[in-house]
Every structure is written in C-alpha cells, then in structure tokens.
Design a protein that fits this description.
The chain is an alpha+beta fold. The protein is built from six helices and 14 strands. The longest helix is centred in the middle third of the chain and has 70 residues.
C-alpha cells in the first residue's frame, strides 16, 4: 500500500516542478521581449525625415539640391537615422507648415523629427536659409533663419541641427545661431587676408625678381660698358705703348757713327768719263778713314787715298765728309758724301789736278761694327785737260772701332 502512495507523491511533486519551470521560462521570455522593445524604441525615436528642400525662384536648382544633400549629411553626422524625401510626403500633399502636419509626416515614417530646408536667397559666398524642424513627441515646430557660408557649410549645419534636434528644442541657442555665420565670415576674412598677403608677397617677390632682373641687366650693361671701356682704354694704352715703344725704338735706333767713332774702309770704284778729250773710264782702289762725333750722329769727317788706273794712272788724296740719316729702326743709313782733293797722274800729262766728288751714299751695318757702303751716281770733277767729269759707282767694306 505504501508503495503505491509513494509513487503518487512523487508524481504530484513532479507536476509542481514543471509548472515552476514553465513560469520562469515565460518570465524570461517576457523580459527578453521587453528588452528588445526598449532597445529598439530609441532607434525608432531617433529617426529624422529630411524633406525635399524648397528654394526661391531666383536660386538655381543645383544649389537647392546641394543644400538638401548637405542637410542630410549633417543629420547623419550627428548619429541620426535619415529618411529622405522618398517617403517623406504623400504625393499631392502641401508642404508641412504646422506642428500637426510635421507630426503627421513623422508618424508616416515612424520618425521622431522632420526637417524642412528652405533656401531664401543665394550669393557667391553662400546662401540665406530657413530650417523648419518638427518634433513629433511634443507636436512642436521650430524655425531658424540662418546664413550658411560655403566655406563652413558642414560645420554650420551641424551646429544648428545639433541644437534643433533635441527634445528641449533651441532655447537660448536660437539667438546665438540665428543670422549670419560670424565664424565663417571671420575665416573667410582671414583667408582673404592671407590670400591678399600671399598675393602681395607674390607680387612683392615678382617685383623683387623684376627689380633683381632689371638690376642684373643694368649691372650686366654696366659691366659690358665697363669691359668695353677697359678694352678701349687697354687698346688705347696698347696703341700708345706701341707708339711709345716705336718712338723709343726709333729714338734708340743705331745711328750712323755712334758707338765706335773711328772707321776704316777698303773698296773700289768705276768712273766712266763723261766729258773729256778721250773716252773711256778710270777705276780705283780706295782706302778711307773716318771720325764721327757722339753729339753729332750721322756726321763723319773722312780722309781717303785712291790708287787710280784705267785711262790714266796715279794717286789721289781726298778729305771731306759724309752725313747719313737713319730713317728706319734697322741699321740702314742714307745720306751724301762730299770729297775734295788732289790727283797726281803718273802717265801722260803729269800735271796735278784738283779733284771733287759728290755722291748719294747708302750704308748698311750687317754685323756688329761691319758695314757695306755704296756711293751711287757719284759725280766727279778733275781740273786737268780742260776739266774732266766722271759719273761712277763705288763699293766699300768698312768696320768701326
């Protein structure tokens, strides 16, 4: 009997345990469901509908669309879930104006916020816009007229939407955010100042470069002119130096009779008879001696002894002199000689005759103190036999000591 009762007790306890397990499981599942709902609710409440941007007729469509995209990007950057205009309004419905209309759009999208961008005007630096934001849980709508500059568009929209997309609304931030973007204008002014400074620096650098180039050109021209002047001056000095050297060389040229003052010559002459009772010629072997003077260059006194042969024979003795100029820098001397003397014939009429000779003279010193002298077209006169005139040529070799 007792054995039967035990199983019954056992079975009753098992049923109670199963009921407790089922209740625990139900409570756990309910807790899990509530947690999922609680977790999912903020995501749904943080959903923001960005309506298509409205723009004034004078504003280009491209700028309106670009502003709408910028608003959507700003909402997304603030960690909100963005719902675009694909499901924002019902076709044919008017633009939402009131808080109720905004809430209706939000409920249609299961969102908490609705943002309507409105572009009032635009310029080269940015645009004037109105941001209308509806908050569905409180059936509230707020508007803020702002300036959005292109230089700081993303930051500006983030600042505005961060203040508008919060449950407490704009509050005191409205006064700070409304109107122009002072920060953007300051940045633009600084950028413009920097650009102007860079442009001025570039212009100054370009001016300095041009001035440097001009200075380099002027300096190059000055240096070229200076080189030309120096070259001209050098050429002039060189010409003057050459002229001076030429003058000195000419002044210091070897004048005839300078250095060694004594001279002796040995030579011969041929003198055809031009006017005489008889025709023919006479010849002579000649010895000359001479003495020059240091202070009278070119002048030389001479004494000569001739042995005459030919149509007549005899001895002649002459005294006289020669004066030779040196017109060149090399030792070639040109001048004239004059001699007077006595001719004593040994054949025929032995009456002594007065003798005179005059001749152009050329002398060339070819080595040290040695020289050759030629008397060209020498004209002679003999007083014997009613006067005899000769025209001859003489060549003599001489040395000085």
């Amino acid at each position: 009997m007792s054995f039967e009762i035990f199983p019954g007790r056992v079975n009753h306890s098992s049923r109670i345990s199963c009921r407790r397990v089922t209740a625990i499981r139900r409570a756990s599942a309910l807790t899990t469901c509530l947690a999922v709902v609680l977790i999912a609710s903020p995501a749904n409440a943080d959903r923001v509908v960005v309506l298509p941007a409205e723009g004034a007729t004078e504003v280009a469509v491209e700028r309106v669309d670009a502003f709408e995209d910028a608003v959507a990007e700003a909402v997304s950057s603030l960690s909100h879930q963005v719902a675009t205009d694909a499901h924002g309004t019902i076709e044919g419905q008017a633009i939402p104006q009131t808080a109720n209309e905004m809430r209706a759009v939000a409920e249609l999208q299961n969102a908490q916020w609705v943002v309507l961008p409105i572009v009032r005007s635009a310029n080269a630096g940015g645009l004037e816009a109105t941001l209308r934001v509806g908050y569905a849980p409180e059936t509230r709508v707020e508007e803020l007229d702002v300036e959005v500059r292109d230089s700081r568009r993303a930051e500006r929209l983030q600042e505005i939407l961060r203040a508008m997309l919060r449950p407490e609304g704009l509050g005191a931030a409205a006064e700070e955010l409304a109107g122009e973007d002072a920060a953007a204008r300051l940045l633009e002014q600084n950028a413009l100042s920097q650009e102007l400074a860079e442009r001025e620096a570039q212009e100054a650098a370009a001016l300095a470069e041009r001035e440097a180039a001009e200075a380099a050109r002027v300096e190059a021209e000055r240096e070229a002119a200076e080189r030309a002047r120096q070259e001209e001056e050098q050429a002039r000095l060189s010409a003057e130096e050459r002229e001076r050297q030429a003058r000195e060389a000419f002044a210091s040229r070897p004048r005839y009779g300078q250095g060694a003052q004594w001279m002796v010559q040995l030579g011969g002459a041929v003198r055809p008879l031009l006017r005489s009772r008889v025709s023919g010629a006479i010849g002579s072997v000649e010895v000359r001696g001479g003495r020059s003077f240091e202070n009278l260059p070119g002048l030389e006194l001479r004494l000569g002894l001739d042995a005459v042969f030919g149509k007549t024979g005899g001895i002649a003795i002459h005294v006289g002199g020669a004066y030779l100029l040196t017109p060149f820098r090399f030792p070639l001397h040109l001048g004239v000689s004059l001699e007077v003397g006595l001719f004593q014939p040994f054949l025929g009429n032995r009456t002594p005759s007065f003798s005179t000779r005059i001749a152009p003279v050329v002398a060339w010193r070819f080595a040290n103190q040695w020289h050759l002298e030629a008397a060209v077209a020498e004209v002679g006169y003999l007083s014997a036999n009613d006067a005899v005139i000769t025209l001859g040529f003489a060549l003599r070799l001489g040395t000085r000591f």
